[in-house]
Design a protein that fits this description.
Layout: H1 6-15, H2 18-31, H3 34-44, H4 56-61, H5 77-113
């Protein structure tokens, strides 16, 4: 099903709530290989996925991020993923709204100027 413009962008953003995004992040975290998890933890400077997972202690023990050596505890990677996806969805919503309003402007211009005659055409010619 194809949708366009304002309705699609608004509905898509409303459908992605925090619980749904948490489920997606959780499912993708367990599908990743250990090397990919280690690379993500090192690049994002975080350890583990969420505190409420049963595997959190094992993930935290095997974490090689630099934040583990500092005095405050490492931030969990799930929170960083949620913050980043929230920011990306806000940008995506703004882009979607921009294109939907230009689409509405195009429709208005087409309806406004569709029956105009060409001034260079022969006036005695039948349309």
């Amino acid at each position: 099903m194809v949708c366009g413009g304002f309705a699609c962008s608004k509905n898509a953003l409303c459908a992605l709530n925090v619980v749904y995004m948490t489920d997606i992040i959780n499912a993708s975290w367990w599908v990743m290989s250990n090397t990919t998890r280690d690379e993500l933890e090192r690049s994002l400077d975080c350890c583990g996925l969420f505190n409420f997972t049963r595997q959190y202690q094992q993930d935290y023990a095997s974490c090689r991020a630099l934040c583990k050596n500092r005095s405050p505890a490492c931030e969990v990677c799930g929170e960083k993923f949620l913050n980043h996806s929230d920011e990306a969805l806000k940008i995506l919503g703004g882009v979607g709204l921009f294109f939907s309003f230009t689409e509405i402007l195009g429709i208005w211009l087409a309806m406004r100027f569709r029956n105009q005659k060409d001034p260079r055409a022969n006036p005695s010619a039948f349309l």
